[in-house]
Write a structure and sequence with these properties.
Chain B: This is Na+/H+ antiporter subunit A. The complex is a heterodimer of chains A (112) and B (785). Chain A has 112 residues and is mostly helical. Chain A has one domain: Helix Hairpins, CATH 1.10.287. Chain A has three helices and no strands. Among the domains of chain B are: 256 residues, no CATH class; 29 residues; 155 residues, Four Helix Bundle (Hemerythrin (Met), subunit A); 58 residues, no CATH class. Chain B is built from 34 helices and two strands. A two-stranded antiparallel ribbon of chain B has the order 1-2. In chain B, helix 29 packs antiparallel against helix 30. The longest helix of chain B has 33 residues. The two termini of chain B are 62 Å apart. The model of chain B has no long low-confidence stretch (mean pLDDT 83). Classes of the chains: A mainly alpha (112), B mainly alpha (785).
């Protein structure tokens, strides 16, 4: 099962990077969202999968699934939400100010 | 000890504050007092005969990095030279520099240089030596470009910096090799392992690297080209750095390692030839100069070449003579530079064609110049120290083939040629000394200069007068200097086995005297007839010059750098991203394959079996399909909604893998994100058809993306192939209730064990929220741009 999940995460990474390399700002934001999904899945897979019950202490349970990746991912989900929303607003402002959402046209000036 | 060496740096830090009061008291006095007290400290050391002082501060002992200072005869000799000339130059500069100049910066640089120079000569650690060495190059650069509004100054500074840094770099290389060969970073320990170094395979490279360092620093042919251009510096700087001290650092380096190198015949051949060629070329070129400082610059090059040649000889007499000449050169060349400074100050020009007849107007300067320049020429008078050391040079050249046994024929032949080359090189030394003196001080005075020129105030004259009296003192009491200063220094280089040297004016009709006389006679002849042979310069060097090579190298490297920069720094963020991601992927893949990191046999995974695993597999397939769909979709709305499918799929996976908190969070966040996307949509343009993109570009992107995906997969597999450390999760499971008082382990980790992480997470969110708020609310007013 872990191997399947690793492969899935890898494929998601691939799509994410392809989107990030596109011209349009929206595409890039989609890419970063995909990238965070892939990373979360990857981290979860790093703690072993399906090895016990949910990490909530209950009487008589010996084995729990790894709580540490879950804690890390929980933090990460929230932060990636913050990043995505900031990027969205940034894209919105960039389009308003520059009149384009094409990365090739957003190069900055020489020597500034 | 440590105080004396670090004092220049400490005072340098105070200078900017002292410089604020420069109109009340000239900043130079502080520098003068500093250097004088350092000089006195070393003088006391010398007289007390306590030549080995140690100070040790260990910094990183395991890497052999420490700060160890010690003074043997050689270090003490140089330290006295540096601080003594430094004091005189500081005093002289008080009268040379206007109060309007940036005195603060000037004296900071000067002290920086003095401290670095003292560091070079007293350091025992090779890396400390290297650091101080580079520091002298930096301060030299700053001092040459002191008048940075002149283009010639900055060009000269750049040239000197590029050339001396080239040498500094090779010095580092040579020192690292020495460290590797001997396993020690202490110069004294390295010197005890001479046999090991000589036998090592690296020896030739070490010699080449250290020679390169010494030759660039000491302006040896063909690296001498920076020194004449460095004359754009204020004259006190030229006197101090570019004749008396810094350019001698290269000589010092070779002297330091002479105990090892003197056994090597290749070293003898290389250094002697470089030295003699430089001696000849420098003096030959000096006659052609019209700028007084230009003459002195080439003369310095030539004198350095002469000392270099003596170091190359490596015999007792030659090493002693080298020390003697270093001392003498500092006295007469220092006073000549100061005299030129005075002439420049008084007449407003340094062009020798415009000068003449200054003897009547500036008698004191004239006396200084005549003594110093005749000493430089080696005129046989008992009051001129230059003659003594030149005699020593000639006699060591003459005796070379007798004093040293040579293995190869070439070296033996060279030893026989050396005396003739020495004489030939010295003839022009005589010529340019005469040229310098007589063209400036005799003949007709130009009207424009004659009106205002007169001897300056006493203060300005004091330093050169003192230096010239040094010339006389050394000549009258040569043996006092020899016993207390030169002998210990030469002993440190050659070993204690050295016999006592005494210096006499009259040796009888020995070969050295005859050589001196030949030089004088031919020199006078050449000087008188120089009108007839000056045409020679059109043939040699003609248009040949090291400067052409330098200029073409410089412009070529500038062009190439610009081209490279233009190609990489294109301004396209996409391109940067592509480069960064592909480099990361390729390097990681190479390392993973190179170290054979994944081993599929040992992987400990949970079983996959149909139909139990069907839900996971189905969700995985849906997620891949959704990711593909959102990537290729041509409508922004479709793309975002399909992206939501990936997120919801992930939360189902969280459920399946027993992570309830994650599933809940992911569900709510995903929902909010989609809503947010939709909110912004009104303002974002529709996704454009991707056909506009070139096919090759598309394929490149696909390749980069696949590489990155593959890399992540393999990293995951590698992580599963080997578990080096036990997981710390067990700790959390065990203590969640005991320490955290909670049943939900994930929650306890977040708010208790890793509570600070969560605090920062909230901070990040708050910053993002502030960013979003300001992006929306604080827009630029129309017409602001």
């Amino acid at each position: 099962m872990e191997i399947i999940m690793i492969v899935l995460a890898g494929i998601l990474f691939g799509f994410a990077v392809y989107n990030i390399l596109q011209k349009q700002l929206l595409r890039i934001i989609i890419g970063t969202a995909l990238l965070s999904h892939a990373a979360h899945l990857f981290i979860l897979t790093m703690g072993k999968l399906k090895r016990g019950s949910s990490p909530v202490l209950t009487e008589g349970t010996e084995s729990y699934s790894d709580p540490l990746p879950q804690a890390l991912i929980l933090t990460s989900i929230v932060i990636s939400f913050g990043v995505t929303s900031l990027l969205l607003v940034l894209a919105y402002r960039a389009v308003k100010t520059n009149g384009t959402d094409n990365m090739e046209e957003l190069r900055g000036n020489d020597h500034d | 000890m440590i105080v004396a060496i670090l004092m220049p740096f400490l005072i340098a830090m105070c200078i900017p504050f002292i410089a604020k009061f420069k109109y009340r008291i000239h900043t130079g006095y502080a520098v003068f007092a500093t250097s004088l007290s350092i000089f006195l400290y070393f003088l006391v050391l010398l007289i007390s005969g306590e030549t080995e002082t140690l100070y040790r501060y260990s910094w990183i002992p395991s890497l052999g990095l420490d700060l160890t200072f010690y003074t043997d005869g050689l270090a003490l000799f140089f330290a006295l030279l540096i601080s003594g000339i430094g004091a005189l130059v500081a005093f002289y500069s008080i009268f040379y520099l206007n109060l309007e100049e940036r005195l603060g910066s000037f004296y900071v640089y000067l002290l920086l240089f003095m401290g670095a120079m003292l560091g070079i000569v007293t350091s025992d650690n090779i890396y400390a030596l290297y650091t101080f060495w580079e520091l002298t190059s930096v301060s030299s650069f700053l001092l040459i470009s002191f008048w940075f509004t002149r283009k010639a100054s900055t060009d000269g500074a750049l040239k000197s910096m590029l050339i001396t840094f080239l040498g500094g770099f090779s010095l580092l290389g040579g020192l690292v090799l020495l460290h590797l060969v001997t396993g020690s970073t202490s110069i004294r320990e390295i010197l005890t392992q001479g046999d090991l170094i000589l036998a090592s395979d690296w020896f030739p490279l070490i010699v080449v690297l250290l020679l390169l360092a010494a030759c660039t620093k000491s302006a040896q042919f063909p690296f001498h080209i920076w020194l004449p251009d460095a004359m754009e510096a204020p004259t006190p700087v030229s006197a101090y750095l570019h004749s008396a001290t810094m350019v001698k650092a290269g000589l010092f380096l070779l002297l330091r390692f002479t105990p090892v190198f003197k056994e090597s015949e290749a070293f003898f051949i290389a250094v002697s030839i470089i030295g003699l060629v430089t001696l000849f070329w420098g003096s030959y070129m000096a006659v052609r100069q019209t700028d007084l400082k230009g003459i002195l610059a080439y003369s310095t090059i030539s004198q350095l070449g002469m000392i270099m040649a003596m170091i190359g000889y490596g015999t007792e007499a030659a090493i002693f003579a080298a020390m003697f000449h270093i001392l003498n050169h500092a006295t007469f060349k220092g006073s000549l530079f100061m005299a030129v400074g005075i002439i420049d100050h008084e007449t407003g020009t340094r062009n020798i064609r415009k000068l003449g007849g200054l003897w009547k107007l500036m008698p004191v300067t004239g006396i200084i110049s005549i003594l110093a320049s005749f000493s430089m020429a080696g005129v046989p008078l008992p009051i001129l120290n230059g003659f003594y050391s030149k005699e020593e040079f000639f006699s060591s050249s003459w005796d070379l083939s007798a004093d040293r046994a040579f293995g190869s024929d070439f070296a033996a032949l060279l030893a026989n040629i050396v005396p003739y080359a020495a004489v030939a090189g010295s003839i022009f030394t005589f010529v340019y000394s005469m040229y310098f003196y007589f063209r400036t001080f005799t003949g007709k005075a130009e009207k424009t200069t004659a009106e205002k020129a007169h001897d300056p105030k006493f203060g300005m004259l004091a330093a050169p007068v003192l230096l010239v009296s040094g010339v006389l003192l050394i000549s009258i009491f040569p043996n006092w200097f020899s016993r207390h200063l030169l002998q210990p220094a030469a002993n440190a280089v050659y070993g204690d086995a050295m016999k006592e040297h005494s210096i006499h004016f009259w040796h009888g009709f020995v070969p050295a005297l005859i050589m001196s006389l030949i030089v004088v006679v031919l020199g006078v002849l050449f000087y008188i007839t120089r009108k007839y042979w000056m045409g020679l310069y059109n043939v040699l060097p003609g248009k040949l010059s090291g400067n052409i090579v330098y200029a073409s190298l410089l412009s070529a490297s500038e062009n190439q750098t610009k081209r490279l920069n233009d190609r990489i720094v294109s301004g396209s963020i996409r391109q940067y991203n592509a480069i960064i991601i592909s480099v990361i992927s390729i390097v990681t893949l190479l390392i993973l394959f190179g170290t054979n990191s994944f081993d599929l046999r040992n992987i400990d995974t949970s079983p996959v079996s149909l139909p139990q695993s069907l839900p996971e597999l189905a969700v995985a397939l849906i997620m891949i399909a959704a990711a593909f769909g959102s990537t290729v979709s041509q409508k922004k709305l479709t793309a975002v909604i399909i992206l939501g499918v990936v997120g919801y799929g992930l939360s189902i996976l969280f459920v399946l893998f027993r992570a309830p908190d994650l599933a809940l969070t992911q569900l709510s966040i995903e929902t909010i994100t989609v809503v947010l996307f939709l909110l912004c949509f009104r303002h974002l343009p529709e996704i454009k058809r991707e056909r506009k993109e070139k096919l090759s570009k598309k394929i490149t992107n696909i390749i980069i993306a696949s590489l990155c995906g593959l890399m992540m997969m393999l990293v995951g597999l590698a992580a599963y192939s080997q578990r080096l450390f036990p997981s710390i999760s067990d700790y959390f499971v065990k203590y969640s209730y005991k320490l955290g008082g909670g049943d939900n382990i994930v929650n306890v980790i977040l708010v208790d064990f890793r509570g600070l992480d969560t605090l920062f997470e909230i901070t990040v969110l708050a910053i993002a929220a502030l960013g979003i708020y300001s992006l929306i609310k604080l827009r630029q007013k129309e017409g602001d741009r």
